[in-house]
Amino acid sequence: MVFLLTGALVVVLDVLTKRLVATTFHPHEVRQVVGDYIRLTYIHNPGAAFGLFPGSRWPLIAISIAAVIVVAYVAWNRRHNWSAILPLGLILGGAVGNLIDRVRMGEVVDFVQVGIPPNYWPVFNVADSAVSVGVVWLALGMMRSGRQEVPEDGSAVTAKEDPVAGVAPSGDST
């Protein structure tokens, strides 16, 4: 339930912010939020992240659908692991948010731009942010759980279970 609620919250925030920008900005309009460091820049991105693979609507839709299925499968298998459920919900919501744009318009609305002039990060949106935060959160969780622990008596070393895959790392655990 937390997985689905997290994903739904991301989708709602993504759709609402994109709609707000699309109805109050002209294409390519830039508005400063924090000087030139944080700006709202309304664009339509016909490609993947960072504008890669422009014009690849159908392959990107297929990849998004596959990502949603894989994330849902992993979340189902890790449903009792709270440290994996929340970031997986973020990834789900981000994938669905951008999928809605791709199906509806063939491109994704992006509007957040950060950087130090004249160098800016590519323009992104709430869905992109959710996916990025979810992936980093999962990676940090996997790195943390992959560490070996020494029991208080120092007699043996044990390996923790991977929070996403649900398996202990291979190798000798003595």
**Strand residue content:** 15-25%
Unreliable stretches (pLDDT < 50, length at least 5) are 154-163, 165-174
Give the termini distance in whole angstroms.
38 Å
Query: What is the number of domains?
Result: 1
Indicate the multimeric state. single chain
What attributes does this structure have?
single chain; 174 residues; alpha+beta; 4-stranded antiparallel beta sheet; two-stranded antiparallel ribbon; 51% helix; globular
Write the layout of secondary structure elements.
Elements: H1 2-24, E1 30-34, E2 38-45, H2 57-77, H3 82-105, E3 108-116, E4 119-120, H4 126-146, E5 148-149, E6 158-159
In words, what does this structure look like?
The protein is α+β, with helices and mostly antiparallel strands and 174 residues long. The chain has one domain (2-146). It is built from four helices and six strands. It has a four-stranded antiparallel beta sheet. It has a two-stranded antiparallel ribbon with strand order 5-6. The radius of gyration is 20 Å and the shape is globular.
